[in-house]
Q: What sequence folds into this?
């Protein structure tokens, strides 16, 4: 607990909040006019969104800093067409489809994986790709597919599991790779110009793998600062304070405020494992459509582990849930509360869209903590 307590010091948190608010106020005095808008920041990571709500940071910074939720929820950004493909794979005779828990309740065009399981499909929840590998070892006569959903944080562990399947000669294990890369999505948001952002709170866990240097394109190409942050209150406030200072002083940069876990070059070993199994390709994102160079697909040497090639199922034209505005929430264009379904038709008990299903979803955070817009 000592380690955690160091990053939850109320006195230091109060000092950082005062520092942020006073720096914005002083900037307003120097221009003899209030800022045209609060400083606009986007936290890419869904874990950050929940931390911000949990610790009441939006309210503490009200009027000075506005925090927008980004697309950093891998369950949420899984495209309907990819989910439909996973559901179709689960219905292939004798297949065991393994997945992380959040995915079973995400609505596709033709229902959910939970519905498929109720109809007789063998869909099993696992806590890691290694659990799926164990199931494959225990069921050598049946094909076992792991639903590979996640960002750079989980992709190396799944790549390592594929390598273990090779070493154990488990021919019945394959992966549907729906992995996504985070920097291209941030580029897509900035290129679209739908939301005016002054700075980015970089994802801590992802950056531990790809390194803080992976975000250098933000100040270099867009003149926008990025502060890589952890998930404790002082982590978040320290990152926001660093961003506010960089924005007000006009010195765009990548600031690593999570140096205890993130190095500039990242985790080279994890990157090598990921690169051994996967190569970069186009991925489909919910709310974005196809984004070039934003996904991970199997290299030719591991094509025999590619569930999409092994089981070429037919998938009907996909469609989004009627009225659901998850795509706009993921791009930071609207707040969850601006969706007409939020809290009425769409709740955690009966979710319409994935942003209400996932533990990292923005809609789930807004619903759980009952907060509205503090801008």
A:
């Amino acid at each position: 607990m000592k380690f955690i307590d160091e990053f939850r010091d109320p006195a230091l948190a109060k000092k950082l909040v005062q520092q942020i608010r006073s720096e914005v106020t002083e900037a307003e005095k120097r221009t003899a006019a209030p800022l045209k808008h609060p400083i606009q920041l986007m936290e890419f990571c869904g874990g950050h969104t929940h931390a911000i709500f949990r610790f009441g940071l939006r309210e503490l910074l009200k009027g000075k800093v506005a925090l927008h939720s980004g697309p950093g929820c891998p369950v949420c950004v899984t495209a309907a067409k990819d989910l439909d493909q996973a559901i179709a794979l689960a219905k292939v005779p004798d297949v065991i489809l393994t997945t992380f828990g959040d995915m079973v309740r995400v609505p596709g065009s033709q229902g959910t994986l939970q519905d498929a399981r109720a109809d007789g499909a063998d869909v099993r929840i696992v806590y890691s790709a290694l659990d799926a590998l164990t199931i494959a070892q225990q069921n050598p006569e049946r094909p076992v597919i792991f639903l590979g959903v996640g960002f750079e944080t989980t992709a190396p562990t799944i790549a390592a599991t594929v390598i273990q399947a090779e070493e154990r000669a488990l021919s019945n294990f394959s992966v549907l790779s729906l992995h996504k890369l985070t920097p291209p999505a941030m580029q897509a948001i900035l290129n679209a110009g739908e939301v005016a952002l002054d700075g980015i709170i970089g994802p801590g866990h992802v950056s531990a793998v790809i390194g803080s240097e992976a975000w250098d394109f933000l100040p270099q190409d867009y003149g926008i600062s990025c502060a890589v942050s952890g998930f404790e209150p002082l982590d978040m406030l320290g990152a926001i304070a660093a961003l506010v200072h960089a924005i007000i002083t006009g010195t765009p940069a990548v600031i690593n405020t999570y140096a205890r876990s993130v190095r500039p070059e990242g985790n080279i070993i994890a990157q090598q494992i990921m690169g051994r199994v996967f190569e970069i390709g186009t991925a489909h994102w919910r709310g974005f459509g196809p984004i070039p160079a934003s996904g991970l697909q199997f290299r030719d040497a591991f094509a025999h582990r590619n569930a999409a090639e092994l089981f070429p199922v037919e998938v009907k034209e996909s469609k989004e849930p009627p009225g659901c505005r998850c795509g706009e929430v993921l791009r930071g264009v609207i707040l969850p509360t601006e969706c007409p379904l939020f809290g009425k038709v769409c709740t955690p008990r009966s979710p319409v869209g994935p942003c209400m299903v996932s533990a990292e979803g923005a809609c789930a955070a807004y619903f759980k903590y009952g907060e509205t817009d503090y801008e």
Remarks:
- The chain has 17 helices and eleven strands.
- Residues 10-30 form the longest helix (21 residues).
- The radius of gyration is 21 Å.
